[in-house]
Amino acid sequence: MSLRKIEVINYDPRWAAKFIEEKVLLNAAIGNAALKIEHIGSTAIIGLSAKPIIDILIEVSCLKALDERNKSLKTIGYEAKGENGIEGRRYFQKGGNMRTHHVHAFLSEDENLVRHRAFKEYLIAHPEALIEYDSIKRHAAQECNNDSFLYMSLKNNFIQEHEKISDKLVWQLLSYSKGRKTLGLCSFVANFSQTFSRQIVRR
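User: That's the sequence. What structure does it adopt?
Assistant: Structure tokens below.
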């Protein structure tokens, strides 16, 4: 059982500022090994309740180059956890049992970049799904007795169902995009939020 208290709180607009502050530190620690640093997860979505932990997505061109920055990341509080269950990922935690930040790093064109970006944009574009997810998260926090595995399992059905929908919409948009031959998959998804929202409205 986790030693950490699992608490889901109302959306806090300070989370966006905390991400920006952390991005400055990460850029300094990682340098040109990072191609893009983004705020993801529930704290990145206005109006969605969340555990007060900032999730950060980093796109890199070389995992080895990122691994060589582990000591630099340690100096700003990050513990390197390797793949931590997801092939091709580099995962970092900050704050110990008082967790404050998670970093998920993937190579460019890794479909996990698409998954994280698409799910975020999907929830932003679907207020009804966001409200449902908010309720599920609050219920999970109340029922899990600070067991992180149970907390995740109580959310898992919703996440899997809606990730399938968001992934499908991404591929549909790619199929009809005139720029699909010149844009990389992850580059497309990183800039598709307005198109994605318009596509949702038409459905």
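The longest strand covers residues 34-40.
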